[in-house]
Design goal:
The chain is of the alpha/beta class. It is built from 13 helices and 15 strands. The longest helix has 17 residues.
């Protein structure tokens, strides 16, 4: 992180290839006197909904929202139509990316055909264009299927990225099985539905030697299992999302903007997640940006679709809630948002963003570039406004004056 005055005006820079060079046209920085430069953020877990669900989000709108949030690289999850389970289906998404993306967008291939958990996808045919393999949105229920997937991924030199959820333990739940659910008559999702499948997959990863990454962990048990697996030498990483670090079930409201999967857990879970990012058990923060239409999110906690948006609010929320409250240092936050995801997924640095960290404002969904509007952070007072995002030496976002 470097001030604009110190860095750009001296024609110095960040580590290649992100830094401006002395020959670059830096006129777009005119008028910026109070900026801090960060390497382009990298989100390994977003949903851009195209092809198949473009009424929720598109590659164009999603990548613009990402650029506004300071992201220059994102990885898109495969719960699409068609599911990218073959080279042919993956190419349909790649065509849209090449045409419409304003930042680097790298897709996942699915683990199983149609994400149905019955037969492996054509992983070998997709390996050249898929960042990794995931059935995100669904846990792979069969142990034998997950073992086969891990063995194939290991052969291909790819990572298995797992949404961990045991369907047999869900019992129709839709928020955390905790105090709020009991007090308000809601059906709960138990923590075991997440951590039991992580426990199984750790055993399989140890057996197969596969590189394994766990999506959006939310429970204290998940943190401890992953901490121990790392100590044992398992090739494992994990992510959590901003909302699990700053909210818990005590913040719930009867509003679909508070419904996501996994759900907001208890206070002890949130504190365990914070401890996990402090001690390095949790490797990165990913938004799980999951836009839906306004109608789909207007049905309350029980009937709204799972998922909230996060790309445009992630840094300001985390900076305000964690850094300014001395929970973590600013360089640690940047490490979680950029350095570590790029290292694990082998995504080179390709840009930077310039932020005014003193600028404070209220989060207003009407200003979002994403088609999605549902977030529990509407109306939050935050610090940190992105002024400019540059990807591959091209300005892809510039804030309105």
């Amino acid at each position: 992180m470097t001030s604009v005055n110190e860095l750009f005006r001296l024609k110095a820079g960040l580590h290649a290839p992100a830094q401006p060079s002395a020959s670059d046209d830096l006129s777009f920085l005119d008028g910026i006197d109070n900026g801090t430069i960060f390497p382009g953020f990298c989100d390994v877990h977003v949903h851009f909904r195209e092809p198949g669900f473009s009424y929720k989000e598109t590659i164009r709108s999603g990548s613009r929202a990402a650029a506004r949030g300071g992201y220059t690289s994102v990885c898109t999850m495969p719960n699409l139509n068609p599911v990218p389970d073959s080279a042919e289906n993956l190419e349909k998404q790649l065509e849209i990316i090449r045409r419409d993306a304003s930042i680097e967008v790298v897709p996942y291939g699915s683990i199983t055909e149609g994400e149905k958990g019955e037969r492996l996808s054509d992983m070998a045919a997709m390996a050249g264009n898929a960042i990794a393999f995931s059935d995100d949105g669904r846990g792979v229920q069969s142990e034998d299927m997950m073992r086969a997937a891990m063995l194939e991924a290991k052969r291909l030199g790819k990572i298995i990225v797992a949404h961990c959820e045991d369907n047999g333990l869900l019992r129709g739940g839709y928020i955390h099985d905790g105090e709020y659910a009991r007090a308000h008559g809601h059906r709960g999702i138990c923590s075991r539905s997440e951590w039991a499948q992580i426990e199984r997959d750790i055993r399989l990863a140890r057996e197969t030697g596969c590189a394994y990454h766990v999506c959006h962990i939310s429970t204290k048990e998940s943190v401890e299992l992953i901490r121990q697996a790392k100590a044992d030498g398992v090739n494992i990483t994990c992510e959590t999302a901003p909302h699990y670090l700053v909210l818990d079930e005590s913040d719930l409201k009867e509003d679909g903007a508070y419904k996501m999967n996994p759900p907001l857990r208890g206070r002890a879970d949130r504190l365990a997640l914070i401890e996990g990012i402090i001690d390095g058990t949790i490797d990165m923060i990913a938004t799980d940006h999951a836009p839906h239409s306004a109608e789909e999110k207007s049905r309350g906690l029980e009937k709204s679709a799972f998922g909230i948006v996060g790309l445009e609010t992630a840094f300001p929320i985390l900076y305000t809630k964690l850094v300014l409250n001395n929970v973590i240092k600013l360089d640690k936050l940047v490490f979680l948002l950029s350095d570590n995801p790029r290292k694990r997924f082998n995504i080179p640095l390709n840009g930077y963003s310039v932020w005014d960290l003193d600028r404070h404002y209220t989060i207003d969904e009407a200003r979002f570039l994403s088609k999605g509007r549902a977030t529990p952070f509407i109306g939050e007072r935050v610090f940190g406004q992105n002024l400019i995002t540059v990807c591959n030496r091209k300005v892809v976002y510039k804030a309105e004056k």
